[in-house]
Amino acid sequence: MSRELEGFLYFGFMGISFLVSILFIVFMFRKTNNARRTYWQSVGLSFLLFGMGCIWWFFQASDGISMIFGWTYYGVAFFLGILLNIAVVTVVKRNFF
Question: In the predicted model, is pLDDT for residue 3 greater than 90?
Fold first, then answer.
């Protein structure tokens, strides 16, 4: 696999994970109207998606250093996603009440 395609897939998966998490929050909050439950479900979904990304990167990385840096970036993106989820839940909650 070429480096350009590998980079696109690596960062594209992060973007897709963020987008899926945000759409999940909006959909589930409209359905359940429970902010706390929706938030924790979205964190679980993000953990699952970023975990799958880490597993994919484990098999894709060519050496140990790129594997560690790749996992670190996925971990940082996961925690930024948690902060993003808090912001989205707050905005969605204010707009519906």
Answer: no
